[in-house]
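Both lines are quoted verbatim for reference:

——
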Amino acid sequence: MANHWMKDRLKAVPLFRELSDYELDSLVAISHVRVYKPRTFVFMQGDPLERVYFIHSGTVKIYKTDFSGKEQIVSILQTGEMFPHAGFFLKGTYPAHAEVVEEATLIAIPIHDFEQVLMASPELCIKLFRVMGEKIVDLQNRLEAQVLHNTYEQIVLLLLRLTRTNAVKQGKWHRLTAHVTNRELANMIGTARETVSRTLSQLKRKGLIDVDEHGFYLIDREGLEQEIFF
């Protein structure tokens, strides 16, 4: 019964969706389920890098801190995503903090055991490389935004990125599926909270963003794209 439950959870992860029952069985044998409450850490920057995690439910914030304690948010991850992506290519310690934002059920797999499964499953390796390729392109786009765009445009580009990674379509709007504060938005691009607040107020006046009754941002993606490209 427990194995059947775990297999169903693994099938829900996009990376594992097309694996055979035999391949899934090899993952079930090395997987563990863990439940984390909000504001608890899955791991902290500098902890020994031992496991890779897949999100069955909940929200996890990945961020770095510098020597002064300043926070730089890398990503906000939700159902179906994995972290840390660098886990298969780095040895030593976790490169960032992983903090639970909304209660999360995670599937944890020891990296050494997962590497053995990858070596026995070329199809899974190819899928993982595709995921890594998407992350590399995302990082290139973020770097380009920092170099080529002013702060207003960087905030617009950030909102557009969130509509692709953390949103569902509702009519003309894309509704974010995670609560994000102005400070967190600022920490994603390295600017001041006040700057983000002013920009969001401008975008609200233009009718390009709004907030629903539950406090989730509503974003007019097509309208925002015109702010950048026209």
